[in-house]
Specification:
The protein has about 130 residues and is an alpha+beta fold. About 45% of the residues lie in helices and about 20% in strands. A hairpin with a 6-residue loop joins β1 (about 70-80) and β2. The longest helix is centred in the N-terminal third of the chain and has 47 residues, at about 1-50.
């Protein structure tokens, strides 16, 4: 009976660790995707003198499988600003929304400024 209790405790700890690790891995995947979008936005600014106003625009990368269904990524651009600006927002969805409340919504702008809307610090989330 003692052995069963010990195995149950170890299984609970292992499951919690696994959940935490997958949450972080998915967050890292969306951050990488956001960086890719930012790099392509900068290239587009050099080529076309304007930022794209959507993550679905042709020069933007396809949504990775690790991110699909777990984050909603939106890109907004203001090309009337001097200099032009963009903001990439990744909002957790589905199981990621309930498991990643510490960081919650992540943003990245044209200056490389990173933010989060959860209770953790930017350094913890990025």
């Amino acid at each position: 009976m003692v052995a069963v209790v010990i195995v149950a405790i170890l299984a609970t700890i292992a499951l919690a660790s696994y959940s935490w690790a997958t949450t972080r891995a998915r967050r890292a995947a969306v951050q990488s995707y956001m960086q890719d979008i930012a790099n392509r936005q900068e290239q587009l600014l050099l080529d076309a003198r304007a930022y794209a106003n959507s993550a679905a625009s042709p020069p933007m990368p396809a949504l990775p499988d690790e991110v699909n269904g777990r984050y909603t990524v939106a890109v907004t651009a203001d090309n009337s600003d001097t200099p032009p600006s963009f903001l990439i927002t990744a909002t957790p969805a589905g199981s990621q929304a309930s498991s990643d409340t510490r960081c919650a919504t992540l943003t990245l702008d044209q200056a490389g400024t990173r933010t989060e809307s959860g209770s953790a610090t930017v350094a913890d989330c990025w």
